[in-house]
C-alpha cells in the first residue's frame, strides 16, 4: 500500500474523482511509492493534484479532472471549453497544467548536483526519469476516443498521458494500472534512488519539511536568469522531517489536536509546520507558548528561520501573562506570593471580568505542555478564536519535572477537546540508540510507561529510530577543579576535530556550578555563555559561536550534538528527591544528539547507578 500524504481520511476538500483516484493509488501501488496530494510548489504556489515518487521509476505529476463527456465542448493544446453549473467556461488544458508544474519542479531539482548525472553527455540532467499526465475519472477510454479522434490526440492529450475511468476501477490489475502511470514517461534510465536522494527531492519540493534550514521557496518564477544562476546550491547535507512526521503534520486537520511525543520525536518540527500552514490560512496572529525562557528563545529563532516572525508570536507563559497585563492596563494583584504567580491570577481574573479579551488569536500552540497547570491551560484555551478553534498541545510526560503540573487532570477539564484528536509519537529521532538506552535505563524506575484514555496523559516508553553512535561515558573525579579541567580538554579536542562550539552544551545541576564552569572555560579561552539570568535566557542565540552552559530545567526542549552533563556530585542522596532529580537528569541526557558525557566529583546514589550503566 502506497504512503499518501496527507492521509486521505483527513482531506475534506477533494472532488469525487480525486478521492477515487487517490484510493486507487493507495491500494494498487506498493509500499515503496510515495504520493502527495494538493501540495503547493513554488512562489506562485502551483498545486498539482498528485505527485508520485518511486525510487526505481521516478517522479510523476498528475492533474485530475472530473469532467463528463457530455459537458466537454472543445479542446485545444492550451485550453478546454466545458459546461458547468455556472455556465460555459474556458479553462487550461490539464496536460499543460501538469507540464508547467513538472518543469518548474525539475528546473529546481537540477540545481542539486547530487540529483544530476555525472556523465559528460548528460551532465546537468536529472539522474532519474520524470513525467506528467492527466486523469479523467468520469470518462472511459472508448468515450474519449470517440470524442477526440486518435489522429488529434497526440497534439491535444496524447493517449499514453491519460488514465480513463475504466482503467482505474477497484478490479483493475495493479500491474496494468502501474503500467499506465509509467507510460507517461518519455525516458527510462538511471539507478534506483537512494534514501538520501529521496530526502533531497523532498527538501527542495517541500521547503516546509526542512530541518535547520530556511523554508522560503527556492522556486522564483519571477526571477531573471541572472538571479537564478547566482542562487546558492543546495547544501551537501540536508535534513528533512521523517515521512511519518510529514504525514502527521499534513494530516492534522482542524480543531484541537493533541500530540503525546517522547523526547526527540519531532514535536517541535510539527509545531513549525503547523505554524507555516496556519499562517497562510488565518488572519489573526498565532500564539506559541512554552514554560521555559530558553525554550521560548529557541522557538523564536526556529520561527524566524521559517520567516514567520510577523505572524507567529512566541512567549514563555509567564512572559505572556505579563504582556497581557501591560497591554490591557491591568494591575498585578497585591500579596506576598511570587510576582509571576500573582500575574497569572491577575490575568485569569481580568479575563473573567472581560477586562482582557478572549479570542485574541487565530491559533494557539503549546510546546512542552506537560509543565502547564490546569488553570493555565483553561486560560489559554479561551484565547483561541472560536471561528478557527485551532489548538495544538504537545507534551511528553516523561519530561515533566514538577509533579503538581504534570497533566494529571483530564484535558477536558481545561477545555481541551482531545477525544478522537490525539496522536502518539514513540520514535525518538534525536538521540542515538546508545544515548537513549543509557538515559532510559538510568531513569527507568521513574518513567514506567502507563496507559491512559484520550482525556488523560499516558507515559510513553521511547523507541529509538535506529541511529547509532559512540557509547555515553561517565567520569568521576577527585575534585571540582579536575572535573572542570577535563571538560576544557574535551571541548578543546572536539573543537580541533571540527565541532562547532554552538553544537556543545554544558548542562549543570546547580547555579554555583554553572558559574564555576563558565569561569574555567573563559580562562581557557573557550567562548561560552552561561544562561542563568532571565535576560540572558531571552537573548539566547542558538547560532552564536559559543558553548552554552545551562541548567537541566533550562535545557528542556533544546538539543545539541554534544552534551556534557556535569556536577552530579552535588546532588543529595535524599530518596524523596530522587523522582524529580532522576527525571531532570533524563531530560539533560536526552538533549544530546550524538555524544553524551556525564561527570561528577563526588560519589552518591546517582553516580553509583551511572557507574553500573557505563560498565555494562
UniProtKB/TrEMBL annotation:
GO terms for biological process: recombinational repair. Keywords: ATP-binding, Helicase, Hydrolase, Nucleotide-binding. Residues 16-114 form the NERD domain. Gene3D superfamilies: P-loop containing nucleotide triphosphate hydrolases. SUPFAM superfamilies: P-loop containing nucleoside triphosphate hydrolases (SSF52540). InterPro entries: DNA_helicase_UvrD-like_C (IPR014017), DNA_helicase_UvrD/REP (IPR000212), NERD (IPR011528), P-loop_NTPase (IPR027417). Pfam families: AAA_19 (PF13245), NERD (PF08378), UvrD_C (PF13361). Residues 425-533, 543-602 form the UvrD-like helicase C-terminal domain. It comes from the Bacteria. One of its GO terms (molecular function) is ATP binding. This is DNA 3'-5' helicase II. It comes from Halomonas saccharevitans.
